[in-house]
Design goal:
Layout: H1 34-47, E1 51-54, E2 60-69, E3 72-79, H2 82-88, E4 92-96, H3 99-103, H4 108-114, E5 117-120, H5 130-139, E6 143-146, E7 150-151, H6 165-182, E8 189-194, E9 197-198, E10 201-202, H7 206-211, H8 215-226, E11 231-236, H9 247-262, E12 269-272, E13 275-277, H10 284-295, E14 300-309, H11 317-336, E15 341-346, H12 355-358, H13 377-386
Parallel strand pairs: 4-5, 4-15, 5-6, 6-8, 7-8, 8-11, 11-12, 12-14, 13-14, 14-15
Antiparallel strand pairs: 1-2, 2-3, 9-10
Helix pairs in contact: 6-8, 10-11, 11-13
């Protein structure tokens, strides 16, 4: 995704992209020269693992010595952060924002260094400090994505099944207008409707019961009226791949958004949650095919809530972490090759604060950084994908 004043430019194969002089806008790509790259490699080899080099003067990269087998050692050039690597491609890269990650001084530097967007629940939702998310993002030149306006698992107190149809519709209209209007100009995108599809079609929720199938389109129109400049997404899980076990649900999501587009509903994109299990996960090529067909409708596509669970793998921990690295790499690499793909959001960034553990579904290690905020193999898998390796 590019700003109004910048054009998206693909990196040249085998050449690193530069650090921006400012993080207030996405990076324009300026290729490094072969000579400066050679100087950087020499400097890195002399300084050792993870050495910082300048190539050219404003481009900070890393040198990492990686041993993949007993017989193979590679020296690789890395960008200084995922944020820089993503911005060089014109992509957003983000994390779920919660009170723990924003308020814990151990984790704030990692959050701001590695990501250029935050996703959070905004508005009158218990337990979320909306203003803190907006303030933190503004201070660190990060974009904010709001989630989720209409979701069966997070119904506002102002809406309940005891209302008449008219009262329920009025309350929903008021809620969307107030929340989106409150953050108009400060939230670049909203997950307007979340998880509305299940195995039978539209999920049986209070929204469907009261308002019928038209509630999805109605929610998008209301959000667009409240902030015409915001990007509006439909978001769902287990609908990432156009083939395999997810095909049936991904087809239903595709048909839903295809109809919305045909009816002139202001839907701008689809979020693929990407909560994956390493023991069984969709083929990257099937995910890419889904991104491709959604983009063909004129929609933007984003990975919106990614994590990869590894506890059920019958392997030792080093092997689990290697499998996790491979999944992160292969899925993201497949997606970023597709036109219309705009970015990745991880559902947290440190294993110290994962919804999987906090909801009692762990213990697991699903994210890019360990409990002490040290990068795991998964981090380097994502970096390699962003750098086209």
């Amino acid at each position: 995704m590019t700003t109004d004043t910048e054009e998206e430019r693909e990196p040249e194969p085998g050449v690193e992209a530069p650090r921006a002089s400012s993080r207030r806008s996405f990076l324009k790509y300026v290729s490094a020269t072969a000579a400066s790259a050679a100087v950087g490699l020499a400097a890195g080899a002399a300084a050792g693992q993870y050495a910082c080099i300048l190539s050219p003067p404003e481009t900070i990269t890393r040198i990492e010595t990686v041993t993949r087998t007993v017989a193979e050692t590679f020296t690789l050039v890395y960008m200084d952060s995922l944020r820089l690597a993503a911005e060089a491609r014109g992509l957003l890269i983000g994390s779920l924002a919660d009170e723990m990650s924003l308020n814990d001084e151990r984790f704030r530097p990692t959050l701001t260094r590695e990501f250029n967007s935050l996703t959070g629940s905004l508005g009158p939702i218990e337990g979320e400090d909306s203003d803190a998310i907006i303030k933190f993002a503004s201070q660190n030149q990060m974009k904010v994505r709001g989630t989720a306006l209409i979701w069966h698992g997070g119904i506002p107190d102002s809406l309940n099944s005891g209302m008449s149809v008219g009262a329920f519709r009025s309350a929903m209209e008021k809620y969307i207008r107030e929340v989106v209007g409150l953050y108009r100009g400060r939230v670049f995108a909203w997950d307007v409707v979340n998880e509305a599809v299940d195995s039978d079609g539209l999920r049986k929720t209070v929204f469907l019961e009261k308002l019928g199938e038209g509630y999805v389109a109605e929610a998008f129109r209301l959000a667009h009226e409240a902030d015409p400049d915001a990007l509006l997404f439909y978001n769902d899980y287990d609908a990432e791949a156009a083939g395999g076990l997810q095909k049936a649900k991904s087809d239903r999501v595709y048909e839903l958004v295809k109809k919305l587009v045909a009816d002139g509903v202001p839907v701008h994109g689809v979020g693929l949650q990407m909560h994956l299990f390493a023991v069984e996960y969709p083929k990257p090529e099937d995910i890419a095919a889904n991104v491709r067909r959604l983009a063909a409708l004129g929609l933007k596509v984003a990975i919106s809530e990614m994590d990869v669970r590894i506890k059920d793998l019958p392997l030792l921990m080093p092997e689990r972490l290697e499998m996790q690295r491979r999944i992160y790499h292969d899925v993201i690499a497949a997606c970023i090759r597709e036109k219309g793909f705009v970015g990745i959001t991880f559902w947290g960034f440190t294993d110290a604060h994962s919804w999987i553990n906090e909801m009692g579904q762990g213990p697991d290690h699903p994210l890019l950084f360990d409990e002490n905020c040290r990068p795991k193999p998964a981090y380097w898998g994502v970096m390699d994908a962003l750098l086209g390796r």
